[in-house]
Amino acid sequence: MLTIKRLNPTTLPAYLLLFKPSLRQPVREQVAIPSLCVWGASFWGQPAGAAVVAPGNTANLLDLYVLPAYRRAGIASTLLATIESE
Prior knowledge:
The chain is of the alpha+beta class. 24% of the residues lie in helices and 33% in strands. It has helices spanning 21-30, 75-85; strands at residues 2-6, 37-43, 46-54, 60-66. Strands 1-2-3-4 form a four-stranded antiparallel beta sheet, covered by helices on one side. The longest helix is centred in the C-terminal third of the chain and has 11 residues, at 75-85.
């Protein structure tokens, strides 16, 4: 079962290694502030993918990653659809 959720300081640590190294520190610092929207995808409770978006008039996707074992399952598409609907 796939679950997409917005990450917060409590849920972030399980997903932190899914972000590119240059974004890990900014994500850690700003996850509680609305300057970055951080999303996580889990498959049966295990982290499977993550995305970082800088909101604004036009949101900028800063990072999107799905673990190789979970690719081609529609996780990236579902993450993007969730982000767009927000």
